[in-house]
Amino acid sequence: MIKNICRILIGIVMLSSCNETAQYYEESGSVFHTLYHIKYQAPEPLTEKIDAELQAFNLTFNPFNPNSMISKVNRNEDVELNDRFINVFEKAMEVSENSGGAFDVTVSPLINLWGFGFGKAEEVTQDKIDSIMTFVGYRKIRIENRRIIKDDRRIELNFSAIAKGFASDVIAGLLEREMVENYMVEIGGEVVAKGKNPRGECWNIGINKPENDSTGFANQIERIISLCGRKGLATSGNYRNYYIKDGKKYAHTIDPKTGYPSENTILSATIVAPDCMTADAYATAFMSLGREAALEMANKLPDVEYLIITAKEETGGYEIEYSQGLRRMLKN
To answer: Using an 8 Å Cβ cutoff, are 180 and 40 in contact?
Structure first.
């Protein structure tokens, strides 16, 4: 009995010692042509392990890397898919089904055509759009025996609307395995957070005003979302990533059903979900669907909360709408 008590006391002392020595560390850098910022509380820095995870992610999903798995798939090389690729692919197919095809990872040739992808922009014509549309569609691709099967060899995959969220999940998973209880992972604006920040509060994530740099409101905060527990958050917006041609603004979200940039009143969509990969994909789906269809879809997704900012075309301003669950997360 005395021995058991001694063991318990020793365990308590060890746990107390670990908590006292743990401190918050910050990591930052670039991956997948975007920036990342990571904060976590641990007894020692995990820099090398984080770098290793990010490099593994890069070798799977970076379309700018000719040696990546996705580049090989797009070149129609015979490559056995790893678990991470399959995981992201299956989530992409799930969101495609739930959104009626508004989310589609086969739109890469259209993204490139319009000048928003990893290929060289081309002169956009209706004939080119019609030609590309013959081999765009999530139902024209599948996985069999851990290999991609395409109905048309010209099909290319682009995971840019889901991969950064998955990368945040991957780093969060590493931190979980390292017994880290308090962390915030942000990769390209996609966030996974758990526990408390250095001030002992839930992690506070700012949502920007939907204004471009020319207005002087760039990076000003519109709302703050407080993330408690483990949650993923992602935001997609059309108000900065666009170009103007012949007096018309073209936003970067492509509508897979038309081949043209999506035209609707949503300026930005912020999604909170159990994981960041899911949040990332649905944020893009919202932007493609437009307000009415997006809210109809959201009502069928019990684990997805949203904040959307839509343009008020009659006044030139904007309005904000939330799901009930997200309203409870607002700090201001």
So the answer is: yes
